[in-house]
Structure formats: C-alpha cells, structure tokens
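Q: I'm building a small set of examples for a reading group on sequence design. Run inverse folding on the following structure and report the sequence directly after it, with nothing in between.
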C-alpha cells in the first residue's frame, strides 16, 4: 500500500505549503510523510539499502542514472524534506546495510587479521551526514543514538582502511575529509549517547552502548556520571549501573543494587519491603549471572532454577545455567534443560549451547562441537560459543583449532577472560611457556580476583625457573581463596624444597581447610584451623581425603611428631588409616612410633620423679642399692610391651 501511495502523481492540492507547515504543532511536524512510510515498510522487510535510497535526495530524480553509470553502491545525501524520523530511519538503514555487507565479507575471509580489519564501509559517510544534521538540530533521541553508535564504531577503528573508499563520489569524499579534519574537535560518542538518553531514557540500546564505552575506557566514568546526574534517580540509571558493574567484574556492587531494586528498603512504619521490581525476571537473571561470575555456583543455581520455574519458555541466559549444571556435574538436570530448550526453540543459539554442554558432559566431544558450530551459524558473534568450542577442541587435542576458536572470541570482545585463559592453556600444552604466560596475564588483568589465573601464572613462572615470582603468584592465589588447593600444594612443595618446614606445614593445613570449606555450602565459623584447636580437629576429621589431602596429612603428622605435638600428629595419622594408598601403611608406622615416644616420655617423667624423692634416714649402702634396684625394676616394667 505504501508503495502504491508513492506511485501517485504529485499534486499541489495534496502538498502542504511552507506556511501550512509552520502552523503545525511539533507533534504534527514529526508525523511521517508518504516517503517515510514507504521507507518504514522497506525497513521492516529488511531491505535496508532500498529504504536508505528512498530517503536520499536522488531517489526522485533520474532514478535510472545510478544503474546506467555504475554508481549503484554510492551514498547520496539525504532529502531536504525529511522529519527527524526520516533522518533516523535513513541513518539506521545505512548502518545496518553496512553491517550486513561486513558480515558477508567476514564469511569469505580465513585470515583472522584481515577479519579484524574489516569495517562498516558506510560509517565515514554516516558521521558526516549526522554531524551536519546535529548542527542543524534535526536529530531526535533516536537520531542521536545512531550518531553515537557511529562515533563509537569509528573511535576504535580510525586507522583501519575503509573498504568503500575507492567508490566515493565527490560529495562523499569532501564530507569525509571534513570529518577527518575536525576529528580532534568532533563530538564524543559518550556525550552524544548521553544526550540521546536524556531525551528518551527508555532506549536500553543506548545504555548498552554507553556501558561498553565506560568499560573500555574508565577515564570517562566521572564525566559520564556528572552528565547523567539529572536522571540519577531514574530506575533505568540503576539498571545501567548493574550492567556496568557486572561487565567490570564488580559483582558485589551489582548484587547490592539488584537487591535494593528487587526488595527495596524496610519501612520503619509498616515494616514491609518496598521493592518495585520484585517480579523482574531480568533482574533475577542478572543476579544469577553475578553469582555465576564470582563462582558462587550454588547461589547462581538457585536463582537460575527459580527463573526457569517462573518463566519456563525463557531461553535468555539459560546457556549460563547449563554451564552451572555442567560444573556441578548435574547431568540429569542438564538433560532436562536440554530437552526443554529444544521443545521451546531448537534454532536458538542458547539451545545449541545447552545441548552442546550436555554432550560434552557425556564425553561426546565431536557431537558437542557440532552443536557449538550450529550456534555460531545462527549468531557468529556469540561469544560463549567460540569459547566453549575452544574448550572442546582442547579435549580433542586439536590445539590449532582451539587457538583459532579462542582468537575469534577475543576478536569479538577483548574482555573475555575465559578465552585469554584458554589461549594460555593451549600454549602451555604446547610447552610454549612465554606465550602462555602472556595470555594468562591478560586473563588475570581482566579477572584479578580469580585464584585460577594466578595459579596458572605461577605454573608458567615455575617452568621458566623464576621461582621467587612463582611463589608470589601462588601466595596471591592463596589469598584469593584457592578452593581447588592447587596453589597451597605448590607452595608447600616449594617451601619443603627450601627447607622451611613451618611454612610448608601452614600451607598444607591451609590446603585442608580450603578443601573442607569447598565441601560445605556455608563458610567455616569459629576461627581458622591454624589458631583454633576445635577448628583444626573439625577440619582434619571431616575433610574428604584424596591423594593431595593424604599427602598433606602425612606431612603434617610427621611435622607435629617432630615438634612433640603428639595429639595433633595422632589425629592426622589416624585419618590415613581409611585411605587406600601407600600413605596408609606410613601412617600406621608413624602411629606406632608416636605411641612408643609417648610411652618413653612417660617413663622418663616417672623415673625423674622417683630419683628426686628424699632418702630414708638411718639407711646405709644397702638401702641405696635397694632403691636403685627398685627404680630399675620400675623402669623395666614401664618399658615392657
């Protein structure tokens, strides 16, 4: 219908004069005209280049010339009669058309370096057109949003060559040259996005792009906070803060804001909670993601489970839920989640990730790779799919494919610490320790509170004979709560080699404490095992004994025996009696030795007490000999088996 409307002959009776347009209200001036209605229909059909052409100045004059003179791919300037809606629609159509062409070129390239150099060829022209519209005051909130997105894309790719530079018209070349000349004094992307947000704060896409800028460049945080002061009490601003905190790994701050938004504050008069978003599924998913990121898998599991029960047809963030189930080794629950996701929508990337995780948990890595690749066919920018694909290739010993997958992940987002960590693991397998150390340090810089990163760095430094630096890395991991006990074991071994038995014993005891704490759903109370005898006894008696724990218990038993702390030594050695390994026999022998030493110590104490007793008056040499024989008899009795 809109296309037929465009086919009507132009008549003065149907066109409004300039005087009539001046008499219209601002709301009426923003109503789309016939051309814009036609462009909206084309945009909804996904014909972005056609929609942009309709809104350009050459779409009504000499329409056949662009085909005959070979200038089909050139961008014409916008029409003069466009409303703010038309300006936004043309700019966004050109942007999406450029993104589509870029994706088509990416699929044809194999070199990762060439793929990273590809740009949206329409960005320079869009910047010039939108800058002019901004100076004329023709941009509304959504036009400013597109302008901010264009500036954000150009900000990180100013030196990259433009693929459309060879086919520019004189108009385009002049406008682009002006843009480059005024680059130092041009508009900043975050300022333009904030202007868009202040005009319309409910555009979540603008908030997301602004958050990406804040995460990439922390120097603008203060300026952004000052510019957003007029809406600092708006709930969208708090949602934005939650998003930025999660991206910056400040998960504790994000959890605090989410709890306040969901539960509010307790009323002093009524004593009830005043949470406005208590039923928000988005906030609950963000809360689950925050707990997942800090590796609190139990809390994340509870929130994901509640979210799935509330909205059983929701697939957003359910791939992270499958990761939690995979880590917790809940194969039955993961199978149910996979079946439910396939029933809801089998062609969603999240569904493919969930099914891939299920096959990976079953050890069918080839099938898991197939589903991860299917997720990437549906969405090539799906970050977790590339990372998980790299993990599967590592399991299949295909290091070249794993490196390729991890590099594709960091090309999409250089803040994906899991991909950097995977690259480090791959190069460590290949015994290229310097490369592995570089990537592990990148991962640690992005996720500094994860003990695994520092354990990996310590392992590389130890392999490079940098012993002191390795000890510092392992100590950092221990301070961050090394739940897997890798750092404590390595530190204990290093201290044993250095002859520092006291530090080695402390590390082994800390290892037992961390392993016991990882078995519990709640943290330990009552002090540490090093300072509290009750906590020490509780840890030693209830920790699950595997090979690392058996080694720690045996060393602690010997250490306490040598330091005459026989009760602690017996407690450690007794735990080894149920362990089916060589440490069991060593523990039994140690128990016999400790009991022998304790008996010997008791005998010496009794002998000293009798030797210090006063002699009976009036007795001579015979009396003295009798007392000696009695003492010998007593001593021989005490040491008899």
């Amino acid at each position: 219908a809109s296309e037929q409307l465009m086919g009507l002959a132009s008549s003065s009776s149907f066109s409004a004069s300039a005087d009539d347009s001046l008499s219209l209200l601002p709301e009426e001036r923003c109503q789309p005209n016939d051309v814009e209605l036609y462009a909206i229909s084309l945009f909804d059909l996904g014909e972005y280049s056609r929609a942009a052409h309709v809104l350009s100045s050459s779409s009504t004059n000499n329409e056949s010339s662009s085909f005959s003179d070979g200038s089909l791919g050139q961008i014409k300037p916008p029409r003069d009669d466009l409303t703010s809606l038309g300006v936004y629609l043309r700019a966004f159509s050109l942007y999406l058309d450029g993104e589509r062409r870029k994706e088509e070129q990416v699929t044809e390239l194999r070199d990762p370096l060439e793929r990273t150099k590809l740009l949206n060829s329409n960005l320079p022209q869009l910047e010039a057109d939108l800058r002019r519209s901004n100076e004329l005051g023709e941009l509304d909130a959504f036009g400013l949003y597109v302008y901010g997105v264009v500036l954000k894309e150009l900000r990180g790719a100013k030196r990259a060559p433009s693929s459309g530079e060879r086919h520019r018209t004189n108009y385009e070349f002049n406008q682009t040259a002006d843009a480059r000349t005024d680059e130092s004094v041009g508009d900043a992307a975050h300022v333009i996005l904030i202007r868009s947000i202040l005009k319309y704060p409910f555009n979540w896409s603008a908030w997301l792009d602004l958050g990406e800028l804040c995460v990439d460049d922390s120097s603008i945080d203060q300026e952004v906070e000052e510019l957003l002061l007029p809406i600092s009490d708006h709930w969208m601003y708090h949602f934005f803060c939650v998003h930025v905190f999660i991206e910056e790994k400040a998960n504790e701050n994000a959890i605090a804001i989410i709890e306040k938004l969901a539960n509010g504050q307790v009323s002093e008069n009524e004593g009830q909670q005043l949470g406005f978003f208590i039923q928000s599924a988005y906030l609950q998913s963000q809360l689950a993601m925050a707990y997942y990121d800090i590796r609190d898998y139990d809390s994340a599991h509870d929130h994901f489970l509640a979210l799935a029960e509330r909205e059983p047809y929701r697939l957003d963030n359910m791939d992270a839920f499958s990761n939690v189930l995979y880590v917790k080794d809940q194969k039955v629950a993961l199978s149910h989640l996979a079946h439910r996701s396939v029933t809801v929508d089998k062609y969603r990337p999240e569904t493919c990730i969930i099914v891939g995780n299920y096959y990976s948990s079953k050890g069918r890595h080839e099938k898991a790779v197939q589903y991860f690749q299917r997720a990437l066919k549906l969405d090539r920018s799906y970050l977790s799919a590339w990372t998980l694909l790299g993990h599967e290739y590592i399991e299949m010993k295909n290091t070249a494919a794993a490196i390729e997958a991890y590099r594709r992940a960091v090309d999409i987002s250089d803040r994906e610490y899991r991909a950097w960590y995977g690259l480090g693991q791959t190069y460590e397998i290949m015994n290229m320790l310097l490369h592995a150390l570089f990537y592990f340090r990148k991962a640690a810089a992005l996720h500094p509170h994860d003990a695994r990163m520092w354990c990996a760095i310590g392992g590389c430094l130890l392999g490079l004979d940098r012993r002191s630096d390795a000890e510092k890395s392992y100590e950092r991991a221990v301070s961050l709560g090394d739940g897997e006990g890798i750092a404590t074991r390595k530190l204990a071994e290093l201290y044993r080699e250095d002859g520092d038995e006291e530090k080695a014993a402390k590390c082994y005891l800390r290892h037992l404490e961390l392993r016991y704490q990882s078995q519990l759903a709640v943290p330990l109370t009552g002090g540490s095992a090093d300072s509290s005898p009750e906590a020490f006894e509780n840890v030693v008696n209830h920790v699950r004994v595997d090979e690392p724990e058996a080694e720690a218990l045996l060393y602690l038993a010997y250490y306490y025996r040598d330091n005459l702390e026989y009760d602690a030594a017996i407690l450690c050695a007794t735990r080894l009696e149920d362990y089916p390994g060589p440490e069991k026999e060593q523990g039994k022998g140690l128990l016999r030795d400790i009991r022998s030493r304790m008996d010997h110590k008791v005998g010496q104490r009794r002998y000293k007490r009798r030797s210090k007793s006063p002699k009976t008056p009036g007795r001579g040499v015979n009396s003295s000999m009798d007392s000696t024989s009695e003492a010998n008899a007593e001593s021989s009795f005490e040491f008899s088996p």
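Residues 10-28, 59-67, 156-185, 616-641 have pLDDT under 50 and may be disordered.
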